[in-house]
Amino acid sequence: MPEVNGTLDKTTDRIAVILAGGGGRRMGGADKGALMLAGRPLADHVQARLAPQSDRILISGLHDYDCAGVSVVPDRDDGPRGPAAGIWAALKWIERNAPEVDGFLSVPVDGPFLPDNLFERLSDGIGSAIACDATGAHPTFAYWDCDALYAAFSTAPDGYGFPLKELADSVHAERVMFEDANAFLNINSPEDLAHAENILRD
């Protein structure tokens, strides 16, 4: 990826962020990005799906899971707590390294079947957008407009643990419908992991 003095080249504008800061409580506290699915870590599955549709991939977490070419962006002390901490950290990284970028995609590290046109469809409108399917909205799979995020965060109390659904509502995110029933499967339990293995076998 072209960089000039550590800053992304002006032609690079599709930044995706893998949210990997969750506690994995229903997986016994396991680091979900490192869980093995079909012989590969979950983080590797997610990166492989993102790579063709993005120019730069960030991982919001503590390490890169041996995914080549990604940048690790840890949570910051000056932003929200909870699920939005990774969004804030990515926003500040972009402010420093790619200020020309208007928005970015987020996906969870435990979403190995994300659509191969996710970035295109969510960034196709004006402003922010979140993915939906027949079961409802999935705000971890979202495109975030940077200016709208700054406005939303500026009105929240210091250290507020912004739920991503609430954050999506605050930035007036468009809902974009997808038809694939497996696209937004999250691996939240051993049963989910077994189900994902079955999907890959089928």
Describe this structure in words.
This protein has a single domain, classed as Alpha-Beta Complex (Spore Coat Polysaccharide Biosynthesis Protein SpsA, Chain A). It is globular, with a radius of gyration of 16 Å. A hairpin with a 2-residue loop joins β9 and β10. With 202 residues, it is α/β, with parallel strands linked by helices. Strands 7-6-3-8-10-9-11 form a 7-stranded mixed beta sheet. The chain contains 6 helices and 11 strands. The N and C termini lie far apart (35 Å). The longest helix is centred in the middle third of the chain and has 13 residues.
**Approximate helicity band:** 25-40%
Q: Give a count of the beta strands, DSSP E runs of length 2 or more.
A: 11
Provide the succession of SSEs: EEEEEHEEHEHEEHHEH
User: Which parts are unreliable, with pLDDT below 50 for 5 consecutive residues or more?
Assistant: 1-11
Oligomer: single chain
> What's the CATH topology name?
Spore Coat Polysaccharide Biosynthesis Protein SpsA, Chain A
CATH superfamily: Spore Coat Polysaccharide Biosynthesis Protein SpsA, Chain A
CATH architecture: Alpha-Beta Complex
Categorize the overall geometry.
Answer: globular
Keywords:
single chain; 202 residues; alpha/beta; Spore Coat Polysaccharide Biosynthesis Protein SpsA, Chain A; 7-stranded mixed beta sheet; two-stranded antiparallel sheet; 6 helices; globular; disordered N terminus
